[in-house]
Model the fold of this input.
Amino acid sequence: MLKKKGSWLISAWLVMVLILSFALSGCAGGGQSASPSASATPTGTQTSTASTGAVKEVKIGFVWPLSGGSASIGKEHNDGALMAIDEINQNGGIKSLGGAKIVPVVADSQTKPDVGCTQVERLITQEKVPIVVGCYNSSVTFPASEVAERYQTPFISQGGVKNEITQRGFKWVFRVNNMEDYDVKETFDAIDSFIKETGQGPKTFALLYESTDWGMGYAFGCKREGLKRGWTCVLDEPYAEGVSDMTPMVLKIKSANPDILFVASYTPDAILFQKAMYENKVYIPFGIQASGGGHQDPAFFAAVPPESVAYLFVQDDWDSSLPKKYDWVAKIGEEVKAKLGYEMNDFFAQGWTAAYVAYYALEKAGSTDKEAIRKALTELDLTFPSGHALLTGVKGIKFDNTGQNIYIGGTISQRSADGKSKVVLWPPENKEPGAQVVWPIPKP
Amino acid sequence: MLVRLIPALIEGILLGGLYGIIAVGLNLIFGVLRVVNFAHGSMLMLSVFSYYFLWKIFGFDPFFSIIIVAPAMFVLGYFLQHILIRPLFVRERALVVEPTSVLMLTTGLMFFLDNLILAIFGPNYFSITTKISSSYFNLAGVAVPWPKIIAFFGGLFLIFLVTWLLNKTEIGKVIKATAQNRDAVAMCGIDVYKIYDLTFGMGVALVSIAGAFASQMFYVQPSIGTVFGVKSFLVIVLGGLGNILGSLIGGLVFGIVEALGSQVIASSASTMLSFLLFIIILFFRPQGLLMRRAERR
Done:
């Protein structure tokens, strides 16, 4: 009897554990409330994909990497998008649709291309969202945007910098952010200006990058630009994302002894890399030039000792001096700090702006018809600040015939000697008053 | 070139040692229960989070916290086996010797724990910085962090302690006997399931000690278990399933191949190199590096 009771108990336990685990993995894997601030999506809302007069709610699909290697970055994008939607809804929703409220439907790509594609497909076919925003990683965005194209659903690409995302002749894909050619150009324009300013510059360079679309594309561009300037490439090192140790790569860099180092890493690798560089006292005279990614993530700066990021150059997609210039940005920054507990950053701002772009497209279309939204996106012309929309500080949003935003532009900043703060150095119009580049950086 | 290979070798040995220690607990559990604990990485993750919070809240050094976390994880492991896994053994004992439902259970447990921690603490990265974690010394031109050295020698000590325990103590001998022939042990009047409880607890406690080392070298994040989890399986298969010393050897082989390989070819391809070696070794020694043919089951 006892045994029977025991086995029954266990079966119940097993079933419970399995159900819970699937429910939870489903929650992070494709649920609608992956973030604490996410508003849950009520099922059976009166959303329609066809244009009708009485729409009460309009769904917008978001696909971010909420678990896996880019989880912290994905969460920040999601926080930004959801907070923007809260603001839009509080201000009366979509006015051209009779004040329809926006309902965000959030899905997790797990930082995996295949999962990203499945989630975009699910949002379009199951959740019937008329517009999708995502997916941060180039490697995910590239195939996932193709899914949206296939289903003829407007896709707002946020984060992916791979050139080809908007160069495939697609009609339904629109990219708000920079593409990697511009990232590379900005980095090298800034370097050129530093060389001009100080009369000194590197002769050799090295590349370290994660071996998916983003890292490969960025490194390819940097190599091309470096060689064009007559520098010698002493190391070209790709690595598989999600490594358990970065020291072997750092040893390679140390022995290659480059004058300047270009890095593209996601957060976990960036943490291990920066620690290993610091421990091994690797001195790069003209600094580490990081192309965003992990090196933009506040979680990265929280996890490494500040001294290890001294004089680090970062290519940001957000002008960090904005809160000092505009009160409304500062106010949003305070709200972020109070509600979410971190300093507002690129990723939050970009998620925010991407959500606003989707809103403006719906507002302009005055309909949830996909073709109408697509048309609205092609005609969209926003200028800074467009209410609170352009939190990223870009001059405007206007898509060219490939779907690329023509008003893009990031900034190049350098961390201070103690690594605790940073100054924006480039472009000249964003340069902070009195900011001075440390070039070459002093030997420790 | 040689200048680079020596530091890489040192790095590989130290990292390999850590792989070995992380895998020991898994191997012990497999050796005795004949069950692969897929939640092994999650146990590592849980203990790493425990060390982080003990450090964050009370300021305890992870090395000190071992005396709190290891017994706690032993209790967790003991009751996991006692409450969740044991009934599956009991239910299926008439049908099979190694119940596959346990595999499903541990896999479910992995998803449950990883996502539970992700849901509670979010995907953020934390790190433990103590006096020891941020100090390092120079060995043949490579800066070796102290935690890595301590991890390596602490791990060696741990592995020999476990070997001694299994060979010299009464309970160890019973555990070993259970691994060899559970029916014979049962006939001697020993409660086999009790031994399973103890072994599972020990395995989990062992990985929690490895967590004290890992927590200072890496970051604290819900996905840390997956970084090491898969590697642990490879390590124990390579070294010999159920062979404690084999875990260390398997770990060392992996660590060294990874570190040296990435000096010769691109790092992205060096993972391929370790898998290639894995296939080659298993082709010639399917029983693993340290197992005699007779020991194969």
Notes: Chain B touches chain A through 55 residues (CB under 8 Å). Chain B has eleven helices and two strands. The mean pLDDT of chain B is 87.
